[in-house]
Amino acid sequence: MTDTLTKTDEPIYKTDALIAEDIDQYLETHQHKTMLRFITCGSVDDGKSTLIGRLLYDSKMIFEDQLEALQSDSKKVGTQGQDIDFALLVDGLAAEREQGITIDVAYRFFNTEKRKFIVADTPGHEQYTRNMVTGASTADLAVILIDARKGVLTQTRRHSYLAHLIGIKNIVLAINKMDLVDYDQAVYDGILKDYTEFANSIGIKAFTPIPISGFKGDNITGPSENTPWYKGPALIEHLETVEVDQVSDQEKPFRMAVQWVNRPNLDFRGFSGQIATGTVRPGDAVRVLPSGKTSTVTRIVTLDGDLDVAVAGQSVTLCFADEVDCSRGDVIAASDNPPQAADQFEATIVWMADEEMLPGRPYWLKIGTQTVTATVQHPKYQVNVNTMEHLAAKTLELNAIGVANLSTDKQIVFEPYEQNRTLGGFILIDKITNATVAAGMLHFSLRRAQNVHWQATDVSRDFHANLKNQKPAVLWFTGLSGAGKSTIANLVEKKLARMNRHTFLLDGDNVRHGLNKDLGFTDADRVENIRRVGEVAKLMTDAGLIVITAFISPFRAERDMVRSMMQPGEFIEVHIDTPLAEAEKRDVKGLYKKARSGELKNFTGIDSPYEAPHDPEIHIDTTGMTAEQAADAIIARLIP
Amino acid sequence: MIDSKRLTHLQRLEAESIHILREVVAEAEKPVMLYSVGKDSAVMLHLARKAFYPSPPPFPLLHVDTTWKFKEMYKLRDRMARESGMELLVYHNPEAQERGINPFDHGALHTDMWKTEGLKQALNLYGFDAAFGGARRDEEKSRAKERIFSFRTASHGWDPKNQRPELWNLYNARKNKGESIRVFPISNWTELDIWQYIHLNDVPIVPLYFADQRPTVERDGMLLMVDDERFPLKEGEEPVMRSIRFRTLGCYPLTGAVESTAKTLPEVIQETLLTTTSERQGRAIDKDAGGAGMEKKKQEGYF
Prior knowledge:
The complex is a heterodimer. By secondary structure, chain A is of the alpha+beta class. In chain A, 30% of the residues lie in helices and 27% in strands. Chain A contains 21 helices and 28 strands. In chain A, α15 (485-498) crosses α21 (627-638) and α17 (523-542) runs parallel beside α18 (556-565). Helix content of chain B is 34%, strand content 14%. Chain B has helices spanning 9-27, 39-52, 71-84, 94-98, 103-106, 108-126, 191-201, 265-274, 293-300, and strands spanning 31-34, 61-64, 88-91, 130-132, 149-152, 180-183, 212-219, 222-225, 240-245, 258-259. Chain B starts with 8 loop residues before the first helix and ends with a helix. Classes of the chains: A alpha+beta, B alpha/beta. Chains A and B meet through α2, α4, α6, β2 and β3 of A and α1, α2, α7 and α8 of B.
């Protein structure tokens, strides 16, 4: 961003003479252009904005009025005195302009005779791993910029690692600012040697090095006289001819995730989606997953008429010969070579939210058109993106990358990310804020999912319950510390016992002395605490008991998780609703005082949030009734 | 041996747009397509018809009208709604109507009230939770950084610093209470892509994009078309017949024409490729507030 582009009088890409002479011929040629999406990665000083500015300018993507605006902007806020500051053309939002930093992903467009290009401009700034991963996820190719004067830097390694991680196979190493090192081949060779060593070490098999000067235009559009020792292609030449992955995707087995079932009337039923890999023709045998039902494709329907063949990348609608069940989230695949379904995986996870990952917390996981609930375990390790070292980690913070096991609440159809981006790449969504908090790439399913079968026992859960002559249930008390949960829960259990009901009370403090004594009070530990209590409560309902639990359980997501573990109707959420001021006034255990003085950290209601239930089965307002009355009300609801 | 079929750039763009349209229909509760009758809207509508064929697109078209569009636009709008089998909703901001807000007397207020306010009112009135818009990233700098799924607060504001990351083709359409989504299915198309697509697919567009003899007056360096009798002629002004066409369409008193003889699509494309000024230059809206004009408008709720 610190260098500028001199305005050349003659753009190297002149307007095609054909436009003026024979527009029909020109259109005919250009309708058959292919497209390449690429990202540029480099730090603030590598001359990235200048390079992009040059590509746009040389391909006539900068209009006169934009150039005029740019000239006037350059004088106002530019950093280049009277020269044009091309960074201003490439950097977008007002706030960033003032800071002088690109903070997000921006997309630019230009054309040459052979291709249309979409450039994702991603920042080189340390903090923004998330933006680069986002930009790279849709790219066919990455251009890694290096300042020839500085060589391979930490950020070069980071960018290369991320590009490789996201599966970009075409990597261009653009060694820039060659003009500032007198086009010295020795400098170029030295950088190339360093980079090759590094690339091999992280598994990058091939890359294309090109010595360039974005500022002077060397080896951008054609061979430069200044680098007679370089025999490879110029940058544009390479970008125009490199093969995109889409071609190899067509050679893989057929897979299409169903987005939408098209049913305009009783006579038509089509399955719409974008083909992830492979090709499909009428007559092909296909299998619908996860059900495994098979059928034959009869038609590939489009507005422009039926197709004889459709390939990876196209959005189509398929009709089948048989009435098979198939809906959004299912995957249609080649019948003789279908993908697997599983519910436990190892995955690489890139954390993208300010709030750190909570192992054990349920998140939405979206993969293809499937959305399920997933929980992530503690990371096996985190990767230091600067050194590629594996570090121990308890969680993942913003911009952290780690490897962890995860499990989903039902089986998903998948393929390893390496083989299939569509069926292997996923996002995690926070269930409360709805924010996209992570991107992930599935490695493989864990054998455990397939081999650990549920041990079927002869005495069933119904038998247990019938023997006790009662319906199992979980009375899940939630509320602030000091709200009266334990007091009321205790009364409820006493009354139920008197009624010959078989009960068990799980109390927060008691459980923390034994089962959960290894857990503290961080958000992550609170989630795990509740998960364990939920599992224990579930086993007890299997044994036919009425379980009463008294835990603050401050997060909605975890309470909902426990609810989803139980049989329908068996989870009864009881909100013991005492205003914070009232609970603090009572302060039975003296904890609020300690929390206020800072002696006690992460105290619910003080410096840790409490998320009240929206719609609990039972709501107890303790300011309006006694504990005795509350217990009676709860029992009346349980045993009508 | 498997045929290797290389998709063209237009095929890839089309497939991406169709994927986006279908995702929204599958995940949103009540989507709508904002239809402005311009060429970008025309392509977006055509893509929607392709995405859901043989069903008609399963959402209505919404035209937030200012009453000041070109007559030809109203004609095409009604025809396209008929042909696509979609419901057409036309919304007029009642307050703007009552106060007689018009582009001649009220300047920027005209756009604010009819378009920005009108859009918010219409979305609230019908309770749409997702609205398709035909904005492209190549049009303007702040749009280059906007996501395809762009979230708006309950008051329809846009926070450029708080956008969700969009990975692969996985779109997170979950929203919080009161939030709505603007979805831009043709984000990655350029002006040239739009023209080529219209050409290849015979997409119907308003005839004003083609040159013809039309009554015009010249004001403040802009060539304006006298589309109806509401155009107040200043003293000494006399409409002159000129061969003109429009590169972009909006309210007729705010939209500058260019002199042209391009009567066919290839000629229009030819002219577009040979010109040296950018497309939105014909519109007055971008000029206020300097370089960040559109970004400010969007934070206020302009589409």
